[in-house]
Amino acid sequence: MPPRRGGGEKGKGSSSEEKDQWVVVVPDSVAESQDGGTTFVKLLHPKTEKGAMFLFSKDNQQVLEVVAFQEDFRSWFIGESVQQDGSLHMVTPVDPLFLILPYLVKAYESGMYMPIDQLVSDEQYPDCIRLLSCVNPSDLEHICDVKGSGDVRAYRYNEEWTLEWLKQKVGQVADKLADSSVRVAGGAQLLTFTHSLKSEQASRDDYLRYACGLVSDYISTDLSKELTQHMGIKLPEKKEVKCTEPPAKKAKLSDIPEAAEDYSKLAVKDDKPKNTKMTAAQRALSKVDKSGMKSISSFFSPKTAAKNKKK
User: Fold this and answer.
1) How far is the C-alpha of 74 from the C-alpha of 87, rounded, in Å?
2) Cβ–Cβ under 8 Å, residues 63 and 99
3) How many CB atoms within 10 Å of residue 141?
4) In angstroms, how far is CA 178 from the centroid of its own chain?
5) For helices 159-179 and 204-215, what crossing angle results, to 10°?
6) Would you state the torsion angle of the CA atoms of residues 293, 294, 296, 302, taken in this order, to the nearest 10 degrees?
7) CA of 103: how far to CAs of 44, 220, 232, in Å?
8) What does each of the 311 residues of the chain score in pLDDT, given as a tens digit?
């Protein structure tokens, strides 16, 4: 775990002696030479044209890209301490020609042949000069015109040769994807499930298209477009999905649901009087002589009727 540049606030419960560090997964060849001077540096990324972290192995024989995977609310338990930064860094080898290429393209505007140490020069990222230790002079001939011999050589960017070199890279990546049975066509599915889909096996064009996208992550956007045209790679056409849903119903003015049928017409009315039983008090009251008795409603007659009688 290499030390991380720059300090940060310590989380609660962390020891004051805890060092700010990274958790890095590196190849065995690099791990064995940890005490031999591996160095983390910032270099210009050929795709984003911004600073990115890279690792140089012992004696600058190999350059590796550092990729970080970060998640919220994640930490590492290391020994008896807690690593506050829970990100995981992966280190993978990268061809140094990809990192040298932006400097050659920029210098091509002058049209002059120049020594390679003058072409690969950057005040913002001075460690880029280490890239020259990772390549042989014969490797530069894949992307450059060369004049001179021996130790005195001058170089100039060659676009045609670069496209051919990138084409070979795409072919190598496509072969590796095919050998590994990586799914490159259609949507993302489980690898164990896709092995049974014999009808959806990817074609050679699918692998080349996918590999071209991977290689394009290390070159500029303009060069990526030229590479696609140079290889004759066509992007898949987007198929229109027809809507099979039924047409929407018209909205009703009332929110009250209406019955499909009028069931009130089916109701049968019973006009026969119902026989009700009388209580003993009701039977006794019915036998009383009611002649000469006023009804109780007469006591509640309007006052106007009473005044007219007095007049």
Assistant:
1) 7
2) yes
3) 15
4) 25
5) 120
6) -170
7) 10, 12, 27
8) 555 444 334 444 444 444 567 788 888 877 776 556 788 999 999 999 999 999 998 888 899 999 988 888 888 888 888 888 888 889 999 999 999 999 999 999 888 999 999 999 999 999 999 999 999 989 999 999 999 887 789 999 999 999 999 999 999 999 999 999 888 875 444 444 444 444 467 889 999 999 999 999 999 999 999 999 999 998 766 555 555 555 555 555 555 555 555 555 555 555 555 566 777 777 777 777 666 666 666 666 665 555 555 55
d(CA 127, CA 122): 8
User: What residue type is 259 in one-letter code?
Assistant: A
Predicted model pTM? 0.66
Beta-carbon-side half-sphere exposure of residue 269 (alpha carbons within 13 Å)? 3
User: What DSSP string describes the chain?
Assistant: -PBPSS--PPPTT--TTPPPB--EE--HHHHTTGGGT-EEEEEE-TTT-SEEEEEE-GGG--EEEEEEE--SS--EEETTEEES---EEEEEE--HHHHHHHHHHHHGGG---B-HHHHS--SSSGGGGGGGGGS-HHHHTTTEEEEEETTEEEEEE-HHHHHHHHHHHHHHHHHHHHHTT---SSS---HHHHTT-GGG---HHHHHHHHHHHHGGGS-HHHHHHHHHHHT--PPPPPPPPP-SPPPPPPPS-SSPPPSS-GGGGPPP--SPPP-PPPHHHHHHHTS--TTPPPGGGGG--HHHHHHHH-
What gap in Å lies between CA 249 and CA 210, rounded to an integer?
45
Contact 138, 116 (CB under 8 A): no
Look-up: residue for tokens 């092995």? 195
- Tell me how far apart the terminal alpha carbons of the chain are, to the nearest angstrom: 121
Matching residue, tokens 């170089």: 155
